[in-house]
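During data preparation, a discrete fold description was generated, and the record follows.
___
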Amino acid sequence: MDGSCGPLGRIERHFWLTRSVARVMGISLSDCMAEGLLSESGYGELITRCRASGCDTICEAWLATQTDRAERAPAHCANAEILDRLRPPARPGRHGD
């Protein structure tokens, strides 16, 4: 076995990339699920969409440059629209939550 994973990227890698982008945006995907803003299947769809996007290297580079809370998901992100919708409003006087 050569470790290839077919047309989708490795699930563990894209699970962590998706969570990391969300975290940089101040989003807790677990909290979103608990609050009914994101279903279990919706969470799975985020991971699958990330796996199919082919932009993991660009995503890693973007994550490496983030030093503060991101106001928007990166333009290359297949989940940008959903993550932008889930992002909580910025709190006055708080940076880098």
About this structure: Residues 11-86 form one domain.
